[in-house]
Design a protein that fits this description.
Blueprint (H helix, E strand, L loop, with lengths): L1 H21 L6 H8 L3 H13 L3 E3 L6 E3 L1 H7 L5 H19 L2 E8 L2 E8 L14 E2 L5 H7 L4 H9 L14 H14 L2 E4 L6 E9 L5 E10 L5 H21 L6
Antiparallel strand pairs: 1-2, 3-4, 3-8, 4-5, 6-7, 7-8
C-alpha cells in the first residue's frame, strides 16, 4: 500500500509546483488547493514539505507561495517580467519609504533594459515611470549599473545596437567616456544619472544579481534634482544597497 501512496504524494507535489510556477503572483493555499482538487490540509502539508525542501517559499505578508531559486537553478531558467515584478514590489515599497523618493527595478531582458516594477513617491511632485518601458543602457543609472557588470560579450552586442545620442548637455556620447564611466561605477558600486537622459532628473542605481552570479537588473531611487541633492543621494546609498542585496539574495545570489 505504501508505493501507490508515495506515487500519489509525488504526483500531487509536482502538480503543486506547476501550479505555483504558473501563477503571476504568490499562490494562495486556498486557490491552489481548489484548482488541483485537493483538501486544504493535504495541500498545506505538501506545500510546507516543499518549503522545507527548499523548492517553495512562503511570502510573509500575503502568506502566498512562490518558487525559490533552487528550481530555476536546476533547470537553468530565469524569471519573466511578471514574476520579477511580484518579487521586487515589496522591496521597492521599503526603499520608497526609506528615501521618500520614487523607486524602480529594471531587468536585463532579451538584451535590453526594461522597467518591470516601480513605486512612485508619495509627494505632489513626482517622477512618473512606465512599467514595461525600455531604458537606454548608456545614459540611465539602471542601464549603466547593469552594463558595468555584464559579460563583455553581452555588452559589446548591446552597444553594437545602441546609438549614443545626445539627449541633454550631460549625456555620454563616446565609447571612451562610457568605458571610463563603467570603471568608475565598478569601483564605487553604484551608478548615477545626473540629468543625462532628462534635464531636471537625478537617479542613483545599484546592480541586482541572481543565482548564476551574473547581473539580472538594477534597483534605483530617482527624483527631481531640486530634491535629489548630493546630501540626499548620499543618504540613499545605504537603504539602496540594503534592498539591492536583499533582492539579490531572494534571486539566489551567493556572495563570494
Amino acid at each position: 500500500m505504501k508505493q501507490p501512496s508515495t506515487h500519489r504524494s509525488l504526483e500531487r507535489g509536482l502538480a503543486l509546483l506547476e501550479a505555483v510556477a504558473a501563477a503571476d503572483k504568490p499562490a494562495s493555499l486556498a486557490e491552489t488547493a481548489r484548482r488541483l482538487g485537493l483538501h486544504r490540509s493535504t495541500a498545506h502539508h505538501l506545500m510546507q514539505t516543499l518549503v522545507g525542501a527548499g523548492y517553495l517559499r512562503q511570502e510573509k505578508s500575503s502568506r502566498g507561495y512562490e518558487l525559490t531559486p533552487k528550481l530555476y537553478q536546476l533547470t537553468g531558467r530565469l524569471w519573466n517580467a511578471e514574476q520579477l515584478r511580484a518579487m521586487a514590489q515589496p522591496y521597492l515599497e521599503d526603499l520608497m519609504r526609506a528615501t521618500g523618493e520614487g523607486t524602480s527595478f529594471a531587468a536585463w531582458l532579451d538584451g535590453g533594459v526594461t522597467i518591470v516594477a516601480k513605486r512612485e513617491a508619495e509627494v505632489p511632485v513626482r517622477v512618473v515611470q512606465d512599467v514595461g518601458g525600455q531604458r537606454p543602457i548608456y545614459c540611465t543609472a539602471v542601464g549603466k549599473a547593469i552594463a558595468a557588470w555584464l559579460r563583455p560579450s553581452e555588452l559589446r552586442v548591446a552597444l553594437g545596437r545602441t546609438r549614443m545620442q545626445r539627449l541633454t548637455p550631460k549625456t555620454i556620447t563616446t565609447q571612451s567616456a562610457f568605458d571610463a564611466e563603467l570603471r568608475r561605477i565598478r569601483a564605487a558600486g553604484y551608478a548615477m544619472d545626473d540629468e543625462e537622459q532628462f534635464e531636471g532628473l537625478r537617479c542613483i542605481a545599484m546592480p541586482v544579481f541572481c543565482y548564476t552570479g551574473g547581473v539580472l537588473g538594477a534597483v534605483c531611487v530617482l527624483g527631481p534634482k531640486q530634491r535629489m541633492t548630493q546630501q540626499k543621494i548620499l543618504a540613499a546609498k545605504t537603504p539602496l544597497a540594503d534592498v539591492a542585496g536583499r533582492l539579490s539574495e531572494r534571486l539566489g545570489y551567493a556572495h563570494a
